[in-house]
Amino acid sequence: MSNISQKNINDSDYSEILSAAISQIQNARTFIAKQISSSATSVYWNLGKLLFEKQLEEGYGSGVVKQLSVDLKNEFPDMGLSPRNLWNMKRFYERYYMADSKLLQSVAVLPWGHNLLLLDKIESLSAIEFYANEIVEKGWSRDLLLNAIKMDTYSRAESQLKTNNFRSTLPELSAEYANEVFKSTYNLGFLGITEPVKELELEGRIIAKIRAFVLELGKGFSFIGNQYRLEYNNKEYFVDMLFYHRGLQSLVAIELKIGSFKAEYVGKMNLYLSLLDKLEKGENENPSIGIILCADKDHLDVEIALQDINKPIGVAEYQLLLPKDELQALVLNEINIANAAADNHKK
Domain named YhcG N-terminal: which ranges (predicted)? Predict the structure, then answer.
């Protein structure tokens, strides 16, 4: 830090510069990756359209597609133009050619492997749009997408109530935006946890994979620190994790709880937010927001606990990776379904 101090830049200012630089590089890489995926998908779309319009079907059209694959691979050996992939392109076109432009834009930027997984696993177009948006926002790998589908994340997101007091504590537009930013459930499957852990261990694992956690939170978050120290009236307080959201222009405090939600967590978070607003909030920034992240919550318990609180607080659940025996059961179930489908096809 010696060179930094010569420029009269303190550690906090440098951390902000570093965070902004990392964000710029990541955004540029994401943009380039999207352009590449979009271009490839456009080619696959047009090839699928060609096969569709020529009314080629598996069976009588197999010979044509097989020969087409051979000739195209001679011209373009690095494009993955196998007969199976050509038929997948036709499936891709058939699934979406009558869909609205919003859905088309969502799937156009996805890697081809992600699109194939959605084609194989999801029938509902609204569910496909949900997963496509999640992939783009959070940078899900194909494995994380599969895990989200197995956990039926779409249905959970559709059915869950918002457990926060944003509408009563924030201006109307800010409250609407905050409700879009924060979710009722967060998937922490990337931590690979299959056995009970303590809160500090959970926090430590999240910090070790902070980039994955920030992606799960969504766009606009910058990590400031964990066990963030606040001092007031000769007393010390420590926030589990502190973030800043550029769109909301608010500090965001996250408290991790291993067990179920308890009403006393709200009082503690309310105190932290008061201290953050008093000690850390910038003059032009909006009020700090608190998120209590726990293993389980009851909507009515949360509602009564937040009833007379004047600081914006939300309560969310987290989901960890399924235990090994449940994962094995899911895999066996998939194998059985595949075998049954193969037997029916032979009949």
Answer: 23-156
C-alpha dihedral, 222 to 258 to 165 to 274, nearest 10°? -60
Which CATH number does 160-325 carry? Answer: 3.40.1350.10
At a CB cut-off of 8 Å and minimum separation 6, what does 48 contact? 89, 90, 91, 92, 93, 94
Using the predicted structure, report yes or no on whether residue 289 has a pLDDT greater than 90: yes
CB atoms within 10 A of CB 239: 26
Amino acid letter for position 215: L
Question: pLDDT digit string (tens) for 298-308?
Answer: 888 898 999 98
What is the distance between the alpha carbons of residues 333 and 124, in angstroms, rounded to a whole number? 21
CB within 8 A of 219, min separation 6: which ones? Answer: 137, 247
Beta bridge partners of residue 229, listed in sequence order: 238
Amino acid identity of residue 322, one-letter, is L
All CATH 3.40.1350.10 domain ranges of the chain, comma separated, are 160-325
166 within 8 A of 175, measured Cβ to Cβ: yes
Q: Would you state the structure tokens that stand for residue 202, as one six-digit string?
A: 């959970």
- CB–CB of 118/136 below 8 Å? no
Give Cβ neighbours of residue 9 (< 8 Å, ≥ 6 apart).
Answer: 17
Q: Which of 21, 27, 16 is nearest to 215 (CA)?
A: 27
CA distance 259 to 297: 9
Long-range contacts of 2-11 (CB under 8 A, 24+ apart): none
Cα angle for residues 255, 259, 262 (degrees, 5° grid): 70
Q: What angle do CA 205, 207, 208 make, to 5 degrees?
A: 65
Q: Are 210 and 222 in contact (CB under 8 A)?
A: no
Token duo for residue 12? 């906090």
What is the largest distance, in Å, between two alpha-carbon atoms of the chain?
82
Q: Residues 35-84: pLDDT tens digits?
A: 545 566 788 888 888 888 888 777 666 888 888 888 888 888 877 788 89
How far apart are the C-alpha atoms of 266 and 258, rounded to whole Å? 15
Decide the pairing of beta strands 250-260 and 235-245.
Answer: antiparallel
pTM of the shown model: 0.50
